[in-house]
Specification:
Dna Ligase, domain 1, alpha+beta, D-amino Acid Aminotransferase, Chain A, domain 1, single chain, nine-stranded antiparallel β-sheet, Rossmann fold, 3 domains, 387 residues, globular
Length: 387
C-alpha cells in the first residue's frame, strides 16, 4: 500500500483536523508549527517549530519523502512559496494563492471573470476615501489588502479620519461598498488537477466536488455558526452560487479546497462574492460529522491528485457552533456534562489555551431539523464555556 507524504505550513486547528483525516488515508503529515504546544503539534508526530515566513525554517518539513506541500493559512510570503516550488509541488500554487492573500487582487480578478462583487477601490489618500464614501456611503467597508482574518483588518467607516492610523502607516487598503444582505452563504468546492467538470454547460479542467451550500452567521467578525444545507434556499440561487464557485476554482487553477463566502441580498437571488480561502474553512467544519467526505479528507485527496469522493450530506441537516472563549480553565473538563445536556453533540476541541474570544473548538449536531440541532449545539457550547 502506498503511503503519501504531505507537509503543511501552519500548525493551528486546521492542520490538527487534517491529521485526523490523514490517519484514515494512511497519509504521513508533517507540520511546520508556530509553537511546540500548538494545536497541531500536540497530535502530529513530526511538527518542528518554525516561522513560515523564513525559508530556513520551512526547510524543516521539506525532507524526503515528500509528495506535496499545502497550507492551513494564507500568510506564507510569495518568495518562500516560489523557492520551495522549485523543488516540490505546492498546492494551491502561488499563482492561485495570491487571490486569497491579497483582497485587491481578488476583487479585480473576480470582477474580470464577470462575477458579482461589491463596488471597490484601492485607497491611498483621504480624498480617495472621501470620494468613495460620497458615492457609496454613508458607510463603507475598508480592509487591509493583506493579513486580515476573523474581523481583523476590517473597519466600517463614515469618514477618512476613521482610518487615519492605517493611512499614516501606508498599509495597502481597499474600500468596498457596504452590502445590505439578508444572510451569508459559503460555498466549498474541492478541485484536483486531473479530470474535468461540466459547469454551466462548459467543460472546465479539473475534477470538482461541491458540498451543499452552507449558511453562516458572523458575530464580531468571527464565524459563530454554520448550517448545512442553507435553510430554505431557492434551488435556482443555489445553482448560480455553485456555478460561480466552480468557475472561480477552475479559472484561478485552485488545487484543494476553496471556500467562497457570499452575501445573499434578497429572495431574487442577488448575491455578491465577499471572500476567498484556499484551504479548509471554518464554514466547512460540519463536514467531519455531517458529510460522506470531510473537507479535510477531500483537501488531502485533491492536493495529492487522487480521485475525489462524495461530498453529500450523510444526514438531513448539520449544524456547527464555534466555542469562542470560555470561563473554564479547561473546557475539556465539561465534556461529561455535555453528554448529559446535549447527547447528540459531537465536541471537537483544539488543544488551545483559553483566551477571551479565541476559537477553542466547535460542536456539531446532525439530525433532521436545523432549529433543534442548533439549540442542542448551543446548549453544548454553553456548557463548554462554563455558562
Amino acid at each position: 500500500m502506498t503511503t503519501y507524504h504531505v507537509s503543511v505550513l501552519g500548525g493551528g486547528q486546521l492542520a490538527r483536523m487534517m491529521q485526523q483525516a490523514a490517519i484514515s488515508l494512511d497519509i504521513e503529515l508533517k507540520v511546520l508549527a508556530e509553537a511546540p504546544d500548538g494545536s497541531a503539534a500536540k497530535v502530529v508526530p513530526t511538527a518542528p517549530v518554525g516561522d513560515c515566513r523564513v525559508i530556513d525554517d520551512v526547510q524543516a518539513v521539506l525532507a524526503e519523502p515528500l509528495d506535496v506541500i499545502t497550507f492551513e493559512h494564507e500568510h506564507v510570503p510569495d518568495p518562500v512559496l516560489k523557492e520551495i516550488q522549485k523543488h516540490y509541488p505546492v498546492r494551491p500554487r502561488p499563482e492561485a494563492l495570491i487571490y486569497a492573500q491579497d483582497k485587491l487582487e481578488m476583487r479585480q480578478k473576480i470582477a474580470e471573470l464577470g462575477l458579482p462583487v461589491p463596488a471597490f477601490k484601492a485607497i491611498e489618500t483621504n480624498s480617495e476615501l472621501e470620494t468613495f464614501i460620497d458615492q457609496y456611503g454613508p458607510e463603507v467597508v475598508v480592509k487591509t489588502t493583506r493579513g486580515g482574518y476573523d474581523g481583523k483588518g476590517v473597519r466600517v467607516v463614515s469618514q477618512a479620519s476613521d482610518i487615519a492610523d492605517w493611512l499614516s502607516q501606508d498599509y495597502g487598503l481597499i474600500a468596498e461598498q457596504k452590502i445590505n444582505f439578508s444572510r451569508e452563504l459559503a460555498v466549498l468546492v474541492a478541485r484536483r488537477p486531473s479530470g474535468e467538470t461540466e459547469v454551466a454547460g462548459q467543460k472546465r479542467a479539473g475534477e470538482m466536488k461541491c458540498w451543499p451550500i452552507t449558511q453562516t452567521e458572523q458575530r464580531d467578525g468571527v464565524c459563530y455558526s454554520a448550517i448545512a444545507p442553507a435553510p430554505n434556499l431557492d434551488p435556482k440561487v443555489a445553482e448560480k452560487a455553485l456555478e460561480a464557485a466552480q468557475i472561480i476554482a477552475a479559472e484561478l487553477d485552485v488545487t484543494g479546497v476553496l471556500a467562497v463566502e457570499m452575501f445573499l441580498c434578497d429572495d431574487e437571488g442577488t448575491f455578491y462574492i465577499n471572500e476567498l480561502a484556499m484551504r479548509p474553512h471554518n464554514s466547512g467544519h460540519w463536514t467531519i460529522d455531517g458529510a460522506h467526505t470531510s473537507q479535510f479528507a477531500q483537501h488531502l485527496r485533491a492536493v495529492l491528485d487522487l480521485p475525489l469522493t462524495s461530498p453529500e450530506l450523510s444526514c438531513g441537516t448539520a449544524v456547527m457552533v464555534n466555542l469562542l472563549g470560555s470561563n473554564l480553565v479547561d473546557p475539556a473538563a465539561a465534556i461529561g456534562q455535555v453528554a448529559q445536556v446535549a447527547p447528540e453533540a459531537r465536541v471537537h476541541l483544539y488543544g488551545k489555551g483559553v483566551r477571551p474570544g479565541r476559537k477553542l473548538g466547535h460542536v456539531t449536531v446532525t439530525g433532521t431539523d436545523y432549529q433543534s440541532c442548533l439549540e442542542q449545539a448551543e446548549r453544548a457550547v454553553n456548557v463548554l464555556k462554563g455558562n
